[in-house]
Specification:
Elements: H1 6-25, H2 30-41, H3 53-73, H4 76-81, H5 83-107, H6 112-123, H7 127-136, H8 143-169, H9 177-212, H10 216-236, H11 241-253, H12 258-282, H13 286-291, H14 293-317, H15 322-331, H16 337-348, H17 356-376, H18 378-385, H19 396-404, E1 411-414, H20 418-429, E2 434-438, H21 441-449, E3 454-456, H22 462-467, E4 475-478, H23 483-496, E5 502-505, H24 512-517, E6 522-524, H25 527-541, H26 546-558, E7 585-590, H27 602-605, E8 613-619, E9 622-624, E10 638-643, H28 645-656
Parallel strand pairs: 1-2, 1-4, 2-3, 4-5, 5-6
Antiparallel strand pairs: 7-10, 8-9, 8-10
Length: about 650
Amino acid sequence: MDQLDFHYILILLATAVALVVLFRYLRLPQVLAYLCAGIAVGPHGLAWIPDLQGTRYLAEFGLVFLMFSIGIEFSLPQLVAMRRTVFGLGGLQVLVSCLAFGGLAYALGVSVEGAIVIGGILALSSTAIGMKLLVEQLEHHSRHGRRAFGILLFQDIAVVPFLILIPALAGDAGQSIWVLLGASALKGVLVLVIILLAGRWLLRPLFHEVALARSREFFMLTVLLVTLAAAWITQAAGLSPALGAFFAGLMIAETEYRHQVEGDILPFRDVLMGLFFITVGMLLDLKVVWALWPWVLGATAIVMVFKTGLILGLSRAFGSETGVALRTGLVLAAGGEFGFALLVQAGHVNILTGTAPQVVLATVLLSMLCGTLLIRHNGWLARRLVPSYQERRESNLDIIRAEAGAAQGHVIISGYGRSGQNLAWMLKQEEIPSVALDLDPVRVRDARDAGEPVVYGDAVRRDVLLAAGLMQARALAISFADTPSALRMLEVVHSLRPDLPVIVRTKDDHELEQLRAAGATEVVAESLEGSLMMGSHVLVAVGVPVGRVVKQLRAVHKDRYRMLRGIFRGEEADSPEEADAGQERLHSVTLLSEAHAVGRRLADLHLDAAGVVVTAVRRGGIRGPQPTADTKLKSGDVLVLYGAPDALDEAEKILLQG
């Protein structure tokens, strides 16, 4: 029976939801939850779902959208700006790892073709886990965070030639492998040229007509059609369909509809990618792994120790101090999700046979579990192993304490969406210190890069609120409309500081009495006027004269809210209005030493012609006002840009690439 019945899908989804909830509680990556769900319900686990052709189709679709996401998020300016780290450090890491792991596999009796694939699988690390945890720990812009990101960027690119290589390795055994590789590479180039030419001449007019229909469903169907059509073209050419999806992502990324595509396709893509990881977990045979556990443990140890040591040595050769190099190696020691993608492709063409696929799959999975712990504690390990290393950042609670500092009479802002950012702006005008807490890592990253007092933290937790200076604060503003979370925060505040003014935002007046009964000083409505009302209540609560508050409100209204329009966009929109892909927003760009703009005046860059305004420049940790046209930019500057998404993309290319 090869049909994927309805109850099998229900079992998959129910198990995935339960494990995602558990892993979120344990603060473990969601990817691991999906993998464990597949292991649990698959044919080699509880056997709730047999080995069906339908699940393999799900895996194929998930892989297609995994590669599509790489293509659409590909940033050529970023690649050029970090070229030394990406192509130098990243290229050497992948090359040496492939040779070492492939050579070891060949010495253990694996075929040449299988050894090449195993080398590629084990050379890769997890972008999804590594970058997510680094952002959560506010280490993404640290020295080791930048090194790790550059290497991961090259690894993501390296997946593409492997997708061309794997079908070639499974070709006619009577032909020379070099002939097969050359033919596959030629086909890959020809398909890429055809797809890119089609994208240049057909895709933009197509999306223009679709956009005129103003139908999100029609737009999403068109995106799916383009993606799957590109995947079919590469499959018909004897290449991987995932390669076509990557090309489709590249093609769409070059159009002005990129941000709309990202916003519309994101939920659909994430569901399919989740199902892909579930089906990968279903491939793991626990009986085989148990019988070969010494091999699995040995392989995991070898992979993680070798990659850590290799990256440590390469990073030292590229100028990093020992502690930074070690932390970079620890972040990238584990295997990654793209290793699963290559393993699935190798399984389709029967390159890996016997127990080798099970050992490799278990090794990557176990290394990802161990790697999560290494990333979370990479600073602690570096300090223990390299006593001379001076860490520039501590734990997240220490970061929150450092941000709050010895502040007396500050305001704690829970949530840094539109309302929270408007409130922080109003407090800044009155020179009242504030500390904001937010759980959107992208928003926290961009805001901190611009010098805003915001840190990653869950304000529902008692220890987080205490670290933010609850006992010394003058007020607490809960700026997001989530009544259950607000009630839990009010309970904590009431037990510790019953005298503290707490202003709460809510969507409507249904929970007004409930929130007031729980201890809220004021409850205000949402949207822009709601955020202005919250700001006025907070300012009055901390002692600002009413006349000055009214004056601020009048100034905002007189300016038609222009001062409050630009916000830092996170991974999720705060409201339907914020979900508009074309809405103007703020965006932070950090200038590395290789960036084109370094040493040039703002006037020479002509950013205004691209429709972008530089609202501020942060230099040496100090954020200055809107710069003049004669301002000369330096390495390390953080520019805060204001404009539409496409204009911001163009401005970033100008700043980084020229």
